[in-house]
Amino acid sequence: MEAFSDMKTPAFVLDSRQIFRFITNTALDEGAQTESDRRVRDYYSRSDASLLWIDRAGVDHRADSLLTYLRKADDIGFSRQAFYVQTIERDMECLQQLRFDSSGSENINRVAARLEYHLSKACMRYAYGFRYGFINPSRIFNRLDKEEKKDDSSNTIRYRRLFDMDMELAPSDYYSTVMQKIACDSIAEYLGTLEPQNALYCQLKDMLKMASSVEQRQRILCNMERARWRLKHPVPVDGKSIIVNIPAYHLYAYGGDSLLDMRIVCGAQKTKTPLLTSEIEWMEVNPQWVIPKSILEKDVVPHAGDSAYFARNRYRIFERSTNRQMNISEVTRAMLLSGNYRVAQDSGDDNSLGRIVFRFKNNFSVFLHYTSSPKVFQRDARSISHGCVRIEKPYELAAFVLDQPDEWLLDRIRISMGLSPATDRGRAYLRTHEDEEEHKLIGYVPVKPHVPLYIIYYTLWPDASRALQTWPDVYGYDRVMIDHLKPYLP
Predict the structure, then answer these.
(1) 331-371 tens-digit pLDDT
(2) CA atoms 351, 248, 277, 39: torsion sign
(3) Contact at 8 Å (CB) between 421 and 407?
(4) Which H/E stretch holds residue 460?
């Protein structure tokens, strides 16, 4: 051991107290850009914190295992610098070759502190990002559109909720899970399980390798990030599901090997259709349209007392508490604005909901429905509604969501929607009721089992042949996402 006595110098002595002091300084200098950064900073500020990567022997193979994953940042379009790859490599080499000085930036404890902090920070960024997404869509999209103030005396800024998908979010103690993996030497195995392996993500990752422009590259990166967000109730592999993709202006109804697709109309810029997950629970044939408060205040209230306007649009006014129909001429603007009355449009071909509406639970009073103006589906740009989704093929969707319906049920829906019957029983019914103007054989139709519904926003999405198609950034969400992904980009 005498041969190594010259190594017992201050330049080669690791001091945990100095390391923690240097870590604190590094954390202050770099700040915290992400939630994972904040978790790492807060951990090392604790009095009971211990070193995760550094011990008396320096660093071991766990750091090399982590670097193997961090060096793959190029594969997902991110910068290695965002994961401190070069800094970690340099400091590891410095530590392994004992290339220190006693007082400068290459002081052994300063190097160990940088290495410890950056290994933890990079590991957390990688784990949080691939497990829960590198950005939080709820936090971003729900602070985009300010609500119009009704009371100018209030300084409170309220935002419209645009994202309400039931997602898995990182629990407050997730950093502890990752730290436990580091401590137990299972971090490499754990990181290997995090990157999504679904078909869409793999398609996008392959497309990224061939991206020929900055615009295309950014579009791919945004959609890869969306594919990293994990739903608590993901799209089922088997069984039925309905996906509405806003940028594509399209609805896709998947049922095993079959696909029903159709054009849709979605919310306008000021009344964006929210992104959400739910289930179709029931249908209403020939529904009455109860006018939402926002439309009531903007379009109906100015015509208070105008009986001709209400008759022309087939609007009726009801007192909410008693359900009593009111005399149009007696209802004032103040009464309509009070919230004590509802205005409803009678069912029929000119009803704004069309002949059928598909209901599902949500926090926005939106639903899928037909329309009284089917020509709108011929437009290229179809973001014009107040938030609901209008569908091009309502009867086909009704038949899709029902579980093995009998022909008479389907015919009652057809006849009630004003369509020709397909059965002898239906045709016989029309012959015996030819004097009736409308045939309302059915109204409420339950959907059992419920059919999962996803209203999503992908500007790259596969068509019926599974080929990725490019769609316009209708609401500008890609631009918003790129701004928040900048800390990770080259």
Answers:
(1) 999 999 998 999 999 888 888 899 999 999 999 989 999 99
(2) negative
(3) no
(4) strand 460-462
Per-residue pLDDT averaged across 264-284, rounded?
96
Q: What average pLDDT does range 270-289 have in this prediction?
A: 95
Say if CB 401 and CB 394 are below 8 A apart.
no
Q: Are 131 and 35 contacting, i.e. CB atoms less than 8 angstroms apart?
A: no
For residues 264 and 390, is the Cβ–Cβ distance under 8 A?
yes
Question: CA 151 to CA 271: how far, in whole Å?
Answer: 20
Sheet architecture: strand order including 289-290 = 289-290, 341-345, 315-319
| Alpha carbon distance 109, 26 (integer Å) | 12
For residue 104, what pLDDT is reported?
64
Contact criterion met (CB below 8 Å) for 484 and 141: no
Alpha-carbon separation of residue 265 from 50, 383, 393 (angstroms)? 56, 6, 12
pLDDT of 159 strictly over 90: yes
Greatest CA separation found in the chain? 114
Phi, psi of 76 (to 5 degrees): -105, 15
Q: What are 351's two structure tokens?
A: 């009803």
The tokens for 365 are 């009073």
Beta bridge partners of 159: 146
**Cα–Cα distance, 367 to 385 (Å, whole number):** 12
Pairing of strands 275-285, 356-360: antiparallel
Nearest to 24 by CA among 47, 53, 5: 47
Give the whole-angstrom CA distance, residue 346 versus residue 353.
Answer: 10
- Cα–Cα distance for residue pair 41/63, rounded to 1 Å: 19
Q: What does the pLDDT average to over 87-105?
A: 81
Task: Tell me how crowded residue 333 is: count the other CB atoms within 10 A of its CB.
Answer: 14
State how far the Cα of 473 lies from the Cα of 336, in Å rounded to an integer.
38
Which residues are CB-contacts of 98 (< 8 A; sequence separation ≥ 6)?
7, 12
Residue labelled with tokens 């994972």: 36
Q: Is the pLDDT of residue 5 over 70?
A: no
Determine contact, residues 374/355, Cβ cutoff 8 Å: no
Give 67-110 as a DSSP string: HHHHGGGGGGT--GGGGTHHHHHHHHHHHHTT---SSSTT-HHH
Tell me the CA distances in angstroms from 45 to 18, 39, 171, 343, one per residue in order: 13, 10, 20, 59
Q: How far apart are CA 449 and CA 466, in angstroms?
A: 27
